[in-house]
Amino acid sequence: MPEGPEIRRAADQVERAIARQPLTEIFFAFEHLKPYETKLVTQEIRGVETKGKGMLICFAQGLNIYSHNQLYGQWMVRRAQDYPPTNRQLRLAIHTAQKSALLYSASDIEVLADAELATHSFWGRVGPDVLNPETTPEQVRDRLLAPEFRRRRLTTLLLDQHFLAGLGNYLRSEVLFVARVHPARRPLDCTPDQMARLAEGAIALPRQSYETGGITNDLTLAQSLKAAGQPRRLYRHWVFGRDGQPCFVCETPIEKIDAGGRRCYYCPQCQSA
To answer: What are the Cα distances from residue 247, in Å, to 176, 217, 265?
Structure first.
């Protein structure tokens, strides 16, 4: 499932392709949204916003197309009217004379007025977005200490979009590793240094992943491993997807556990219980 950095990179592509230029056609697959095809096609798109894994295509006259990719949704930007060969179902298409932005397989699509955003079940209720420049480590630390969050296991909390928007499964493992925190811990179990590292990592790793196309490992180390011919899956992350491989810090084999029905990776030495 794409996480906040991947959705923001997709939003960047969509914005470059269709924002601030005349639209030629809009297509909605869902019947209840069909009336908006003619209503929106005459308006200009002023920008594309994201909150975590949600995307908002903002039109000039106060309407917005909200979408959430969930597990299987995928955005594709192509030449105008150039549809790829795929078995996926097209849910939304926005065309200009030069480009088409195509959303496949997503089932969560709505048209919302500006006034509806604050009370929307996702857009209005998620926590601070880790990619938003205004979100700070101090805010994250304060949320970790908040009564509604401090007693929850971090493997669950870091996936909760009401806590922070944009973290997901691979980022969960990576944030816990750079903080040197065992997956079984809760915020109230952590030392002040661990809390500081959790807050820093929850901001820094998603932003690095966004800037680098998914790399959360030390960038110098990743570059040297790439130059040595290592495949991307072995140098992209500190621990995620590397079970049985030596830790980059202490050489202890990385372990994989099930946490909330999803795989989580950690170093039993660096993240000792």
So the answer is: 14, 11, 11
C-alpha 27: how far from its chain's center?
A: 25
Cβ neighbour number for residue 133 with a 10 Å cutoff: 8
| CA gap 133, 135 in Å, rounded | 6
211 included as an active-site residue: no
Which residues, listed in sequence order, are joined to residue 67 by a DSSP beta bridge?
55, 109
CATH class for the domain made up of 137-266: mainly alpha
State the Cα angle at 242 between 1 and 203, rounded to 5°: 55
Specify the pTM: 0.93
pLDDT tens per residue across span 128-164: 999 999 999 999 999 999 999 999 999 999 999 999 9
The string of DSSP letters for 200-254 reads: HHHHHHHHHHHHHTS--S-HHHHHHHHHTT--HHHHS-SSTT-TTSBPTTT-PBP
CB 178 within 8 A of CB 238: yes
2, 186, 256, 263: the active-site residue: 2
Q: In the chain, what are the domain boundaries?
A: 4-119, 137-266
Which one from 8, 9, 51, 53 is the annotated catalytic residue? 53
Decide: helix, strand or coil at residue 56: strand
Cβ 76 vs Cβ 105: under 8 Å: no
Please state which CATH number belongs to domain 4-119: 3.20.190.10
